[in-house]
Fold these 2 entries.
Entry 1:
Amino acid sequence: MDRRKFLAITSALIAQTSLHKTLPAQTNTSQGSSIPDLVAVRGGEPIQMFDRAITAMGGIEKFIKPGQKVVVKPNIGWARTPAEAANTNPDLVGHIVKLCLKAGAKEVKVFDNTCNEWQQCYQLSGIEKAVIEAGGKIIPANDEAYYAEVELKQGRQLNKTLIHKAWLEADSIINIPILKNHGGARMTCVMKNLMGIVWDRRYYHRTDLHQCIADCATLAKKPTLNVVDAYNVMMQNGPRGTSLADVANKKALLMSCDMVAADTAAAAILGTNLTDISYIAKAKDLGVGENNLKNLKIERIAI
């Protein structure tokens, strides 16, 4: 295939999603590093897109070291099947668990403080089966005894909260939210996925949901890597959904160490105005990450 034809096909793929409207036209290379701040992959299957993204980020070994205790944190909040896109893609979760173990992780634990009954969520989502088959450990999060209090010194509304001990004890954490619409937060993605490591999530809704999401993102132990599952995206009626009509096949994946940057890019895929997702700007103000993508080195991959 000649270069002109290749570029034409690549441009056509980019035009299929609104993501390119938010990502700057050129990569910022001023930071002098070959590793991008954000990788945006489009047009493949979940595992295929992850493999391309992690290669661009320097390989799984850059984030997982031999002997480490690892937590993989998907969204498993709802008693829904994979096709309904309320939870993270189970094949993607299982693949990441397997790669962590292959990289030498001592153990890989997976959990979520679910909204529906936890055992139903773990089973119907397909994630429990995928984790076990990959050699990981699926653990519960349905009892306060699993949590320890943590102070959030930078928090403006949430000053302390109970965080799952597995998260606090982990050497490395891979956060794998699924991108979807949310009635209250407008979008659930990277930072909001941290509500699944907190015991009293109702406090968020009783006070200031967006500020609490931003405050929790200041947690000292942040994700080592964030992987956004945007293959099938719930565009409306989130976070649980009502039918398959709520779901659009976007065939996208984002990867970044920066939670704010990943959420900013994800909002473009969802088609949600950034001003409506106020926790992104609030987290930027708290120093969590960067919401101006023009300041970042971005690598785009079209499959």
Note: The chain has one domain: 3-302.
Entry 2:
Amino acid sequence: MGKLVIFGMGYSARRIADALGDGYSEVVGTHRSPGAAVAGYTARRFDGETPDPTLAADFEEAEALLVSIAPDATGDPVLRAFSEIIAEASRLRWIGYLSTIGVYGDHGGDWVDEDATCRPVSARSKARLAAEAAWADLAERHGVPLAIFRLSGIYGPGRNAFVKLEAGTAKRIVKPEQVFNRIHVDDIAGAVEKAARRGASGIFNVTDDEPAPPQDVVAYAARLMGVSPPPEIAFEDAEMTPMARSFYGENKRVANAKARRDLGWSPLYPTYRSALETMWREGSWRGDD
């Protein structure tokens, strides 16, 4: 068995490493900060500019690569630093890239699948779409399967409406007809595991079955906690960061049929209700972060 190299050992990538780790001789994960580490995995430093020199040696034994780092203003930092090394990685058999459903842009609340026209609105989503294309070009030239995972809003233990309600930061912002898809972090790990084991290639929407208004999620979590939900706030009156407000400029319902069909994947938590109920019942909602 070769190594699994993960760029960006963050919230989702750690769950993916847990799901995939036993299939590789070693899991190597990068961090921005010196000395950062996750138990059970080999840590390397990569801040987007200066890589740990040992990463080049890791690629000599790399069998799979997972990229969980967002592009910056000048492109994909992993490709910028490692494209030549990756192209020469003779043992590499699969690449996974974590992207976002933001690349679809606004579709007026209509359903979209992987064949839908991408018309990203924000600069970060435009950069994601460009990064997808750059990774597809490298994978084609290298002859390695590439799976692109377009993720919806990520939540799970430590990152959910319960945490925000407890901290007093939860808001119920209402914009008529606005819906969002979500995905539990364990369902991301499940989809990536299925794809990596199969050596799958292509684009896959990794999302739940029920796009829903964000205020409904907060209200449901409050009900489970037995607390009063925060008052509803009209979108026009809400105080939000420019990034948070930009999310409301994209309204769509994202289908996951292709991932179900081609990967044999189905979400453990097909709706936000099933996930919230499980986390509340098990007491896992605070997480360990």
Note: The radius of gyration is 19 Å.
